[in-house]
Amino acid sequence: MTTSRTKYFLAALAALACLALASLALNQPATASTTATKAKCGTARINAVKYFSGNVSIMCDSTWMYVSSLEIPNDEMMVGITGWNEQVPLPFVMSDVLSTMWKIPLKPTYSKTLTATTGVGATALMVNGVPLFNATKPSQVGNQSTYQAAADPLLTGELDHCDGHSGRGDDYHYHAYPTCLVSALVSFTHSTSSKVGILGWALDGFPIYGLTEPNGTPATKLDSCMGHDLKNGLGYHYHFSLSAPYSPMCFHGLVPPENNPEHQPAAAPARQAGAPAKVVITAMHFEIAGKSTLSYNYNGAPGSVTYWPTASADPNKDCWQFDYVNPPAGSPGTGSQIACRPRNGRGS
Ligand SMILES: [Zn+2]
Ligand SMILES: [Zn+2]
């Protein structure tokens, strides 16, 4: 983490020094006169996100797709988790400031050299604006990930029915094939063909498709990053799989340092994460502006945590009040607390 943050800040400093004018332009609201527009994203990208317009929006210039997202799905969350790290889904702030949005290369560059995903932060962004992480914890060596079943959150009960959970920054993200997102797409489009369309984009800009090709044929001859180019007009792209590691563990495209996800909440968590606790999460009611409640059983006894946005004295931070309601004896989390997170997950 320290290394990646240092790299980010060095990259940011270099960008400030060399591209002062460009930086000024990027700090303009996207709604003001800038070179980025929705239309420049192209029909495929606009169509891919259009069913989730309340949660995610995109704009493009000639280089980037800028993505603004709540990073919250409009689906069930958290239910079914049996190894809870005591975190809950907290939304991010939708932004129209390009410099605070996710940046995905609009024209990805294929590279013969592979770049490993790190297991820290997102590897991709789904069409509903929810980040995708890989399926294993970061290696202690070189900050690169290789799949380890013992560290697969799907196998350790840490994922919900949608293959997502709230990570150490109280941020919601997927770690495997996003089943509820796919179901939502089928429901919105009234077509099962949507489950094999573009489900998201890796940080190198290449799209991630579903379990098969868009025409329904099996995804074959996948490389070690779960991608291929069939020379059929789709270009290089990745696939999901139902078997581990479920999504790419490496990038076959160049990953620009500029798109190091500033939203990576582990860099700026609101609260201390707990060790996975043996609770069963039974229900989640989420309200973006009101009271959200996550209900669980601990040793057969029900408890819940309720949380809601509360005023922040610091305009650069978002705060929430947490109340544990009737926590069972010995269960994790008690009492009340206010926790604040730097806006957009940026480090403070
Ligand atoms: Zn996670
Ligand atoms: Zn394919």
List the helices and strands and how they pair.
Elements: H1 2-18, H2 20-26, H3 42-49, E1 56-60, E2 64-69, E3 102-105, E4 110-116, E5 124-126, E6 131-132, E7 164-166, E8 172-174, H4 179-189, E9 198-202, E10 207-209, E11 227-228, E12 237-239, E13 250-253, E14 279-285, E15 292-298, E16 301-310, E17 317-325, E18 336-342
Parallel strand pairs: 10-12
Antiparallel strand pairs: 1-2, 2-3, 4-13, 5-6, 5-9, 7-8, 9-10, 11-12, 14-15, 15-16, 16-17, 17-18
Bound molecules: zinc ion (2 copies).
The unreliable regions are 1-33, 262-268
Query: Could you tell me the strand content as a percent range?
Result: 25-35%
The mean pLDDT is: 83
Shape: globular
The total beta strand count reads: 18
Q: Which strands sit side by side, in order, in the main sheet?
A: 6-5-9-10-12-11
Instruction: Quote the distance from N terminus to C terminus.
Output: 15 Å
Q: What is the helix tally?
A: 4
- Structural class, by secondary structure, is alpha+beta
Order of helices and strands: HHHEEEEEEEEHEEEEEEEEEE
Task: Provide the domain count.
Answer: 2
Helical residue percent? 10-25%
What gyration radius follows from the Cα positions, in whole Å? 20 Å
Largest sheet: 6 strands, mixed
Which ligands does the model contain, each kind named once?
Answer: zinc ion
